Amino acid sequence: KVKGNFTKNYAFYDESFRKDKLFAQNITANMERALKDKEFKVYYQPKVDLKTGQMIGAEALVRWVSPIDGFMPPGQFIPLFEKNGFISELDCFVWEETCRFMRECHDQGLPKLPISVNVSRTDLYNLDVPKIVCHLTNKYQLDKKYLHLEITESAYNEHPEIILKVTSVLHDLGFILELDDFGTGYSSLNLLSEMSIDILKLDMRFAQNHTTNKRQNDILSFILDLAKRMGLVVISEGVETKEQADTLRDMGCGLAQGYYYSKPITQDEYKEMLMKLKGE
Ligand code: C2E
Ligand code: MG
Ligand code: MG
Ligand code: MG
Fold first, then answer.
1. For the CA of 207, the nearest ligand
2. d(CA 172, ligand 4 centre) in Å
3. For the CA of 201, the nearest ligand
4. Is there an atom of ligand 1 within 6 Å of 57 CB?
5. If you measure from the C-alpha of residue 152 to the centroid of ligand 3, how many angstroms do you get, rounded to a whole number?
6. Quick check: 23 pLDDT over 90?
7. Is the CB of residue 17 below 6 angstroms from any atom belonging to ligand 1?
8. Which of 37, 99, 239, 265 suits a disulfide with 258, CB 3.0-4.6 Å?
């Protein structure tokens, strides 16, 4: 009986494993072509000032719009690309596309706001990130302060010395660094004092759970207080309701990003928001 159950579970497991493997193979076989065929699109999600509700910038987020598989969110392919190394090629594309787009907005006389791009930990090991982003800001004649770099907290877990070095170089060059998904990566508070970062991006569970979880709420107050003492700006990710926005603002959080304000939007939609901002 026991043996029967085991076999059944095993067969089920094997089947889903096979499907995952096929999915991964299909993605890997198509990624280079997809990049050439411009199937990767960069969307922009507004960041806002919690006090005024005004847009103060955006984050560039990649999507794969495939004629065969449709619209794919990054959660489905980024982890694979981080394993097979393709992430670095894709990120270079996203960084360049973002710089090109900012240049276009500036040339059209739209308000100059910074846009942040995601930097995978793999990029920090595989690429000369400072050289690449300097090349891009030169090519598109952008002040470095407009290109923010988001590095996830967990990137510091494996080889903190490498990451600390690269981020301090980037910071000294004038780029603004944001520590992404803060609160999920197990970095010690001591490490926080050594990192050259300007902005703490709180993982979305803080925005979403603090009203229901007393302890989470205490931790949130503590982080906001600590950030203030350290002179760090805090942005809350994943703000979905007015209630969450109000509470975060009352607790002293300065900035927010989330569906309550806007989903990630296309270039044209983002330009429209810049135009509205100009009119205000
Ligand atoms: P992230 O950098 O932490 O980006 C925030 C994610 O939260 C985005 O998911 C965004 O669409 C989503 N989000 C924003 N507001 C809300 C909200 O109110 N509620 C909820 N539930 N979600 C919200 P997305 O676009 O699916 O990206 C997922 C992750 O994939 C990103 O997390 C980032 O780690 C990675 N990623 C996305 N684009 C890139 C890229 O170009 N390069 C690299 N290396 N990673 C990327
Ligand atoms: Mg991010
Ligand atoms: Mg994040
Ligand atoms: Mg995240």
1. 1
2. 26
3. 3
4. no
5. 7
6. no
7. no
8. 239
Q: What is the mean pLDDT of residues 190-219?
A: 86
Mutate to test the pocket of ligand 1, among 44, 77, 78 (most ligand atoms within 8 A of CB): 78
Is 39 touching ligand 1 by the criterion CB < 6 Å?
A: no
* Ligand 1 pocket residue status of 120, Cβ below 6 Å: yes
pTM of the shown model: 0.93
Predicted confidence (pLDDT) at residue 10 exceeds the cutoff of 60? no
Cβ–ligand 1 contact at 181 (below 6 Å): yes
According to the 3-state scheme, what is the secondary structure of the chain?
CHHHHHHHHHHHHHHHHHHHHHHHHHHHHHHHHHHHCCCEEEEEEEEEECCCCCEEEEEEEEEEEECCCEEECHHHCHHHHHHHCHHHHHHHHHHHHHHHHHHHHHHCCCCCCCEEEEECHHHHHHCCHHHHHHHHHHHCCCCHHHEEEEEECCHHHHCHHHHHHHHHHHHHHCCEEEEEEECCCCCCHHHHHHCCCCEEEECHHHHHHCCCCHHHHHHHHHHHHHHHHHCCEEEECCCCCHHHHHHHHHCCCCEECCCCCCCCECHHHHHHHHHHHHHC
ipTM of the complex: 0.97
Please work out whether the CB of residue 180 comes within 6 Å of at least one atom of ligand 1: yes
What pLDDT band is residue 3 in, cutting at 50, 70 and 90? very low
Confidence of residue 253 (pLDDT cuts 50, 70, 90): very high
pLDDT above 50 for 76: yes
73 Cα: distance to centroid of ligand 2 (angstroms): 14
pLDDT at 1: 43
